[in-house]
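Protein modeling request. Please complete all fields; requests missing the sequence field cannot be processed.
Requester role: graduate student
Desired output: 3D structure, token encoding
Chains: 1
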Amino acid sequence: MSVVVERRGFSLPRGVSPETQGEGRESGSQGEPGSVAAAPAEAPSVELEQLQEAWRRSILPAVEERSIPIGKTLSEAHPSELTDDVLTFVFPRSAAFHMSLAEDPKNAALLRDALYAVTGRKLAVAFALGDDVHAGAAADEEPANEEDVLELMKSTFDARELEL
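Delivered output (164 residues):
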């Protein structure tokens, strides 16, 4: 039977923590009396679907704990591919400026740290531009016409048309 511990909304096997996994450290390597050498823990496996589920729920909030502006910048992106421990984030073409901010080494390091804190796995990050269609939006949706915009303004701001 496998026991799983939830860490920031992301499941890790019991006994595995980001501090103990994949670093190859042995406890007691300093010759402490009464210590037992432990085998290095293997990093937990991570699937793209898990990362996509945890993105808005756990990973973005972990980034925002480190930097709110970068968290808001990264909210434009979504995880789209995981290959050989490289997680690729796709930004819509209209958010190219946000992607350039995310690519800054300091900001990318914030994202990597947050990923490690949530998943316990050291992942490299890459960024790409994709289509401007956001999740949940229909690709064949027609742009709003003037009448739709006016109705939206009326309902949002409790506005009324004035006859002059």
